């Protein structure tokens, strides 16, 4: 089942899913005070800067899957539906994981 699922997603989407999972897992570490030295720099500066980029890349993939799904049928339509659902769940997970930090940044005080 996992092998079939990975074949449906393909290597690039699988890599994107892995990156989104890693970014979501690193969200709690970003709530620490900002540090410009050591490994804390990665979790408090670099990773929060990467999240919006991967968020919109994934949304673009969802949009393109919907476009391709609308013009296909049968097996290809099912493939695009699976990709669309998977990527939507990952975007939701990323949003939920990073919402506390971005809420704190956008609403100081």
**Low-confidence spans: pLDDT under 50, at least 5 residues?**
none
Overall tally of domains: 1
Provide a count of the helices: 4
Tell me the Rg in angstroms: 16 Å
Q: What is the distance, rounded to the nearest whole angstrom, between the alpha carbons of the first and last residues? A: 48 Å
- Specify the overall morphology: elongated
SSE class: mainly alpha
Assess the beta-strand content as a share of residues.
under 5%
- What fraction, in percent, of the residue positions are helical? over 70%
* Strand elements, count: 0
In short:
With 109 residues, this protein is mostly helical. Helices cover 79% and strands 0% of the residues.
What are the SSEs and their pairings?
Layout: H1 2-9, H2 11-25, H3 40-70, H4 75-106
Could you explain how this protein is built, in words?
By secondary structure, this protein is mainly alpha-helical. It has one domain. It is 79% helix and 0% strand. It contains four helices and no strands. The protein is elongated.
